[in-house]
């Protein structure tokens, strides 16, 4: 028999709607950004975070009281919240903003800080980065604003709810590193943490009945106006085709002509 937990855990999982990982990215004609009229889905690292929250509840049984997912995005971002609810989250919060321009990591972190103040989670799990801007800053900024401990790039997460401790294994250049954090804490997920489950049709139907709260930045008293302006976006230069040589001597000669030998 498991000992009674010291506390019931509330888990918050921020997720982001981003261009689907399988879509080929193209710069728009105005060169102000990339073409966004394409398929979108939940950021893959955030999907891993949702899966880990659900797995923690499966492992810890009654110790996890609630899993809340939150997104800060346009109206269409509610789609990824429904996906997270179908995966096993209990309720969702949608901080609705215009589609463009998108907020920066610091603005997102400030908004999440206010959500944390409202929801009082013990553990926040989010993806280590979003595949659209690859900033990889939100989790760390949120930990700094809250004054919480943090463990980034998690490849394994163990929670001792009795002691109130989270042990995170993370991959580093020299091998594996274990970080122990006291709750409340921030954890960001790496690619090898888990493989997200497929959502079944019954769970998709059940997700439609789960609560989804709508908020605005004004409700949280945060300003998400970007501080940076993107002047121009261009595609990288196309790679030049290679050529074949008949001998080592010819190869050396070609390298000399290119100024690399």
Output the CATH class name: Alpha Beta
- Look at the helices and sheets and give the structural class: alpha/beta
Bulk shape: globular
- Euclidean distance between termini CA atoms: 71 Å
CATH superfamily: HUPs
Main sheet specs: 9 strands, mixed
Query: What is the percent of helical residues?
Result: 25-40%
Write the element-wise H/E pattern from the N-terminal end onward. EEEHEHEHEHEEEEHEHH
Q: From the coordinates shown, what is the CATH architecture?
A: 3-Layer(aba) Sandwich
How much is the average pLDDT? 90
Low-confidence stretches: none
Strand order in the sheet with the most strands: 9-8-7-10-6-1-4-5-11
Explain what this protein looks like in three dimensions.
This is Probable electron transfer flavoprotein subunit beta. Belongs to the ETF beta-subunit/FixA family. GO terms for molecular function: electron transfer activity. It comes from Serendipita indica (strain DSM 11827) (Root endophyte fungus). Heterodimer of an alpha and a beta subunit. The protein is α/β, with parallel strands linked by helices. The protein has a single domain, classed as 3-Layer(aba) Sandwich (Rossmann fold). The protein contains seven helices and eleven strands. The strands form two sheets. A nine-stranded mixed beta sheet has the order 9-8-7-10-6-1-4-5-11, sandwiched between helices. A two-stranded antiparallel ribbon has the order 2-3. A hairpin with a 4-residue loop joins strand 7 and strand 8. Helix 2 packs across helix 5 and helix 3 crosses helix 4. The mean pLDDT is 90.
């Amino acid at each position: 028999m498991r000992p009674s937990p010291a506390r019931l855990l509330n888990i918050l999982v921020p997720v982001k709607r981003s261009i689907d990982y399988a879509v080929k990215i193209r710069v728009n004609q105005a060169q102000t950004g990339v073409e966004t009229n394409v398929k979108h889905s939940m950021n893959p690292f955030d999907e891993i975070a949702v899966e880990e929250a659900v797995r923690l509840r499966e492992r810890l049984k009654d110790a996890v009281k609630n899993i809340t997912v939150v997104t800060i995005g346009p109206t269409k971002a509610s789609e990824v919240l429904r996906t997270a609810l179908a995966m096993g989250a209990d309720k969702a919060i949608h901080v609705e903003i215009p589609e463009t321009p998108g907020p920066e990591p610091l603005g997102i972190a400030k908004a999440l800080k206010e959500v944390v103040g409202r929801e009082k989670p013990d553990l926040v799990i989010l993806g280590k980065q979003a595949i659209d801007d690859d900033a990889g800053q939100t989790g760390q900024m949120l930990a700094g604003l809250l004054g919480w401990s943090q463990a980034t790039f998690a490849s394994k997460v163990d929670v001792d709810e009795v002691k109130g401790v989270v042990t995170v294994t993370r991959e580093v250049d020299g091998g594996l590193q274990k970080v122990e954090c006291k709750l409340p804490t921030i954890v960001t997920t790496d690619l090898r943490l888990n493989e997200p489950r497929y959502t079944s049709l019954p769970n998709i139907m059940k997700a439609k009945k789960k609560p989804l709260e709508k908020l605005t930045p004004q409700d949280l008293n945060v300003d998400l106006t970007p501080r940076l302006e993107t002047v121009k976006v261009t595609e990288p230069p196309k790679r030049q085709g290679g050529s074949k040589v008949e001998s080592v001597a010819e190869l050396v000669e070609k390298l000399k002509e290119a100024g690399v030998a």
